[in-house]
Amino acid sequence: MTSSHPPLLLKNAWLVDPATGHEERGGVLIEGGLIKALGPAVAAPEGAEVIDCGGQVLAPGLIDMRAFIGEPGAAHRETLKSAGEAAAAGGVTTIVSMPDTNPVIDDPAMVDFVQRRARDTSIVNIRPAAALTKGLLGQEMAEIGLLREAGAIMFTDGARSITNAQVMRRALTYARDFDALIVHHVEDPDLVGQGVMNEGEFAARLGLPGIPREAETVMLERDMRLVRLTGGRYHAAMISCADSADIIRTAKAAGLPVTCGVSINNLALNENDIGDYRTFFKLSPPLRDEDDRQAMIAALADGTIDVIVSDHNPQDVETKRLPFAEAEDGAVGLETLLSAALRLLHADLISLPQLLRALSTRPAEILGLPAGRLECGAPADLIVFDPDAPYVLDKRQLRSLSKNTPFEEARLEGQVTLTLVAGRIVFDRRST
User: Which residues make Cβ contacts (< 8 Å) with residue 294, sequence separation at least 6?
Assistant: First the structure.
């Protein structure tokens, strides 16, 4: 990024490379925005800046494949600048922004606008996803080739599902020819109906209409058959239940070009957290029961689930301070993604390299990015964090413009100390 900067040595760190699973004590030397050298014997050249990491973890920065950002059209909820600041504080060095904006990102000029605006205002990398269908209406396919040429990193209708199987088939076929990635929100709106939370005993007790798991699995099953028919690269944006994990597992075993993600909310929370109609827990897909949450953790551990996303979706008081059934879906998550994910590590449910692989390496591989690994020549998009640092989340301290976090006043462990993008320090907790 800037070869004019002197070399930087991050020493006395616990190096974790999720790409290989290798862990060791050592340091990383950064020059010209890239990793120049690393390991236990790396030394600082003359004139280099040296930072002692105090034994904390040094790993690739997180790559979040699903973040809704208000700009353009709803900058009062979140801007590219504020999203970048929140991401840096949470250790996220690359964000994929969803096309659900106003106007929709379904035109090469809009892709270019987001890229330019992000370059000018954001301290982290922001890569735009383009709409899969024009206007996100699910009827007419967007210009995948032109949008990809303009810089769109993947194609999705964001929080909307494509119910027309012919449109999805056509999109997967075109995507195959352009080697583009289709990302789909798997939720049949007709089966969702008026549902607002997971269908089951708890919803009945609260008197709220439920969303059956079949709203997810029926759509996912259809998509697997279309992938088999077309050969297009497909990523299920988020799954939330055991049956969906089984569907993905079967598709992968059959050799289909399929990957999937899970929201950190469906890993760290369940439907009981909704409690007394707490709207910050109204999400899509909804929080499921504890059995499904455990199934998601197991699917993550065995590699069925590839990535963890924040599903960052800023909402303001006008859209959240409403009766539960009327409130909008969504929660902010960029700043708490790592801390919430570390709950799985502290519960001995997954290893640190496995966890970081789902947060960094696999997203990079799926998106075709050179980041997500500790190796010479890789971009110096890095984080230093203390996985055991305890804190209680105060939403007023969040850098996001919106404060709709489901982790308000939660006890969390794991705080980012340093975040670097292309070798430049963009967040330093030591100075805050």
Answer: none
- For residue range 256-300, what is the model confidence (pLDDT) as tens digits? 999 999 999 999 999 999 999 999 999 999 999 999 999 999 999
Among candidate residues 64, 100, 188, 311, the one labeled active-site is 311
**Average pLDDT value for the chain:** 96
Our measurement of the distance from residue 74's CA atom to the centroid of its chain's CA atoms, rounded to an integer in Å, reads 20
Using the CB atoms, write b or e for 102-112: b if 16+ within 10 Å.
eebbbbbebbe
Domain enclosing residue 27, as ranges: 8-58+379-386+408-431
Q: Nearest CA to 8 among 370, 377, 420, 378? A: 420
Per the CB < 8 A criterion, the answer to whether 132 and 142 are in contact is: yes
Which pLDDT score is estimated for 2? 42
Domain count, the chain: 2
Angle at 399 between CA 396 and CA 405, to 5 degrees: 60
**Residue 372 and residue 60 in contact, taking contact as beta carbons nearer than 8 Å:** yes
Q: For this structure, is 311 an active site residue?
A: yes
pTM assigned to the model: 0.97
311 labeled part of a ligand binding site: yes
The pLDDT assigned to 317 comes to 87
Report the CATH number at residue 42.
Answer: 2.30.40.10
